[in-house]
Amino acid sequence: MLTDQEIISTLEMLENEHLDLRTVTLGINLLDCAGHDLAKVQKRIHTRITHFAEKLVPVCDLIGEKYGIPVVNKRIAVSPIAVVGAALSSSQLVAIAQTLDAVAAEVNVDFIGGFSALVEKGVARGDHALIEALPQALTATERVCASINVASTRAGINMDAVLMMGKTIKQAAELTADRDGIACAKLCVFANIPPDIPFMAGAYLGIGEADAVINVGVSGPGVVKKAIDRALKTDPNLDLGQISELIKKTAYKVTRVGELIGREVADNLKIPFGVVDLSLAPTPHVGDSVGEIFQSLGLVSIGVPGTTAALALLNDAIKKGGAFASSRVGGLSGAFIPVSEDLNIAEAARQGYIGLDKLEAITSVCSVGLDMVAIPGDTTAENIAAIIADEMAIGVINNKTTAARLIPVPGKGAGDSAHFGGLLGQSTILPVNCGDRENRFVRHGGLIPAPIHSLKN
Amino acid sequence: MNKIILAVLGLDRPGIVAAVTGILFEQNCNIENVSQTILQTEFAGIFIVTMPPNGSLEILREALNAELNPMDLHAHIEPVTKKQAAAAPSKPTEPFVITTKGPDRKGLVAKISATIARYGVNISNLQAVFKGGDEPGDNIMIYEVDVPVDINRQSLHQDLREKARALALDISIQHRNIFKTINRI
After folding, report:
1. Cβ separation B173–A9 shorter than 8 A
2. Residues A211-224: pLDDT tens digits?
3. Residue A389 belongs to domain with CATH number
4. Element at A149 (helix H, strand E)
């Protein structure tokens, strides 16, 4: 027999605190779709994806209804297209992106990730073609997401690839200038990219994964915030150790939802269950914000002194609670701080409480990185590359994932507003220190060597 | 085996369970199941008991009345027949929880439970609190139900939602596992 308190508190989380399952992401291995003949590759990709994914959305909806918990996003992640399409040219890879876009629409998923390359140690022919194809591919498609891993703790930072990405991001922004450079919102540059991320834009299916796998991403910023608010209302003198325990317990509950629904979707589709990604993923809605948690903890806004410590506490407590709740934790598993996608963080940017420097600092204690950060359109490709390099260095040295999703908004400057729409939100454009000046550092290229602590064997 | 069901009702106070079970012990009865609850000020207890082979229902009833009536408690005993024992549903079911919130009015339980009954769904536990008034959180019904797997669940959900809408109630219908999963280790 359930207690009335168990039922009422769960309903409260669902009705007023935005508890849902943020994403169920179906990973599909496309490696054996590779070939020289574009039409054949396209056909194989279409057949493979529809075979595994045709029931994904109805099954997620059915199971979401059974438990009264909506699965907000249904997505697909595929093997890195730079490997699948290694024999193809960059224009042919644009056609592959369009195939992915069309099949994503056919099976009714909102995003398909995996237009990706892993170039942390060197750029192979296929990787080069894919990076070259990125601006056009992301402009010509709506649902395709791309990620490029340019650094790892084991390999170091591939500065040639970093510079290529600075130029690519600039081109992608210019091709979608009429939509504030939205192509860049679908492109993430990574250090230490995990092979099982369910969240976009970083989702792809790693090389070591099975034919198909179900990974899920939980939600929960609203639930965590309300739990903190309630506890502090009852006892305003709670210390931070007690608040950490509270967040742990809340993260446990949120993660259990992900595990239960993810496993049932996987069983239903007869596909192995992969991981739960514990990340707190916000949306541009009031009450569903990571930024609001900082205010609940007593800060004026995210960005003011105390922010890094508060985020470290939050991130650690989420991991501890989530790790206990699930036997299969993976992906990014930390708090996201996507500026435009989080109403409260976007407002903090507008009011000047947070800028690029503080955002970079706090990425040392959370996942993922400089996420959905709009910067002035006149920021040079070299300086975009340099921002990426800084972010990659934090990941490489601290043996963690970091990423940069930067949008140099064409024709707009610091303080202007950029609108991306939907879940991508909107944000004030943040200034970049000397962003329009030359940056000879990144022109040196080469490989920043792996840190000494990468030698673990 | 002489299996009986015993119900005890009356104003709650310390010592009721001790009194009832003391008599059962004296009468050489064996308790198989007990469930007791308190609603506002009232005690309600149900006991399923096996009597000794030579035990008498009448003697037990007299012993219970003699002890409990002075305490303002009332006992009711019935034999559990084989027919009753066989009445337990054997069809496979899935456990769901139906929760409603909304303004108080007469007939809420009757109307929601009638819809549940029409589909052959058994209520295994019901908790309801009506403090009165229009504040939704003050008037809550929680039904734990066993839904046969062979009925049209979508249709049940739709009928319940329509009934709730007509009664101005917010309704949630969820598989029981979600509550266990979230709240229990």
Report:
1. no
2. 999 999 987 799 99
3. 3.20.70.20
4. strand A144-152
